[in-house]
Specification:
The chain is an alpha/beta fold. It folds into 2 domains: about 180 residues, 3-Layer(aba) Sandwich (Rossmann fold); about 190 residues, Dehydroquinate synthase-like - alpha domain (Dehydroquinate synthase-like, alpha domain, Up-down Bundle). It has 13 helices and 13 strands. The strands form 4 sheets. It has a 7-stranded mixed β-sheet, with helices on both faces. A two-stranded antiparallel ribbon has the order 7-8. Strands 10-11 form a two-stranded antiparallel ribbon. α5 runs parallel beside α6, α6 crosses α7 and α6 crosses α8. The longest helix has 21 residues. The radius of gyration is 20 Å and the shape is globular. The termini are far apart.
Length: about 375
């Protein structure tokens, strides 16, 4: 059974299809829910690990239904999310003579999804992209909403564009091969949705004994987590497609999180781990500024611990340097760093008046 979550947008609506085994039903889902047809060359962009597990089977099923698909396999890891790697997609697009009616399929986690989406946004001024996320983080966050891009040496996702997919295909079965650390990273984004938007999701997470491994969840529990999380992202994006206001709350935990990733050269923290620490920091800032209570912050921290995610900053990190890195964040507005701070479980606000001294003091208290 397929769960469809519509993503209603003014210019290009689409849907998220959640279904076990949906990767092998991709041609049918494309035919039923998109205008895309197999009448032009296409690329499947992936990384070696994901391609080894799922790529050949997806290529075969597409070719059985008339699609002309060629793989484009990129190196795995956030440190390869660069313009240099992006060039490999462009080179493949040129070699395969992709045209305006062509489609890029993003088969992988958030890095592959972001780069493929950006390539689709910029090749021939825009072609179709279909997201087939293979990590929990990508399923509930990166593949939805049309944010695409690559990193600059001075900051994460500074080069990018909004480019909505034509379809997002979520297959829970592929999480079986997801490394445990990456599953925990995705759980950080799930917790985020519970804190900023969906108190029912927060309560569900509180009721579960473990959040650190997929084997601890039943099929129904995992399905509920996916549906709640995807719906939360859709609710926000459909109200603010291009982050003119409300959508900024999706960056909860990301302001400090991105700085942590960058300072560690994407080797110390993965994205979800950095966001987890960022959420703890934002929670402490919210307490200091009177936005929410110690009790709510403790409840958030308990979920982060339950997911076996970090809550502290390594002692070797320069917290003064972290504060300086915040000035390069793409969320800086009028030279002020915007923070997303929670005001209750299920609600958050955009706050611009956060003193640098308070940020520095908070980071110091989290350093171990």
């Amino acid at each position: 059974m397929t769960t469809l979550i519509p993503v209603p947008l003014p210019h290009q609506s689409y849907c998220i299809a959640i279904r076990a085994g949906s990767r092998l039903a991709l041609p049918q889902l494309l035919a039923e829910h998109t205008p895309l047809r197999p009448n032009a060359p296409a690329l499947i962009v992936s990384n070696p690990q994901i391609w080894r597990h799922y790529g050949c089977a997806i290529q075969a099923v597409l070719e059985e239904h008339g699609w002309q698909v060629t793989p484009c396999v990129l190196p795995a890891g956030e440190r390869y999310k660069t313009l240099k790697t992006l060039q490999k997609i462009y080179d493949a697009a040129l070699a395969q003579r992709l045209e305006r009616g062509s489609t890029l399929f993003a088969l992988g986690g958030g890095v592959i999804g972001d780069m493929t989406g950006f390539a689709a946004a910029t090749w021939l001024r825009g072609i179709a992209v279909v997201q087939i996320p293979t990590s929990l983080l990508a399923m509930v966050d990166a593949a939805i909403g049309g944010k695409t891009g690559v990193n600059h040496p001075q900051g994460k996702n500074l080069i990018g564009a909004f480019h909505q997919p034509r379809l997002v295909v979520v297959d829970p079965e592929v999480l079986a091969t997801l490394p445990p650390r990456e599953f925990r990273a995705g759980m950080a984004e799930v917790i985020k949705y519970g804190v900023i938007w969906d108190p029912q999701l927060f309560e569900l997470l509180q009721s579960l004994p473990r959040l650190d491994r997929i084997s601890a969840l039943s099929v129904d529990q995992l399905a509920s987590i996916l549906q709640h999380s995807c719906q939360a992202k859709v609710d926000v994006v459909s109200k603010d497609e291009r982050e003119a206001g409300l959508r900024a709350i999706l960056n909860y935990g990301h302001t400090i999180g991105h700085a942590l990733e960058s300072m560690g050269q994407y080797r110390v923290f993965n994205h979800g781990e950095a966001v987890a620490v960022g959420m703890v920091a934002a929670g402490e800032l919210a307490i200091a500024l009177g936005y929410w209570s110690e009790t709510e912050a403790a409840a958030q921290r308990q979920l982060i611990h339950k997911a076996n995610l970090p809550t502290t900053i390594p002692s070797q990190f320069d917290v003064h340097g972290l504060v300086a890195l915040l000035q390069h964040d793409k969320k800086v507005h009028s030279q002020k760093v915007r923070f997303i701070l929670p005001t209750a479980i299920g609600h958050a606000e955009i706050v611009e008046q956060v003193p640098s001294e308070l940020i520095l003091a908070t980071l110091k208290t989290l350093q171990r």
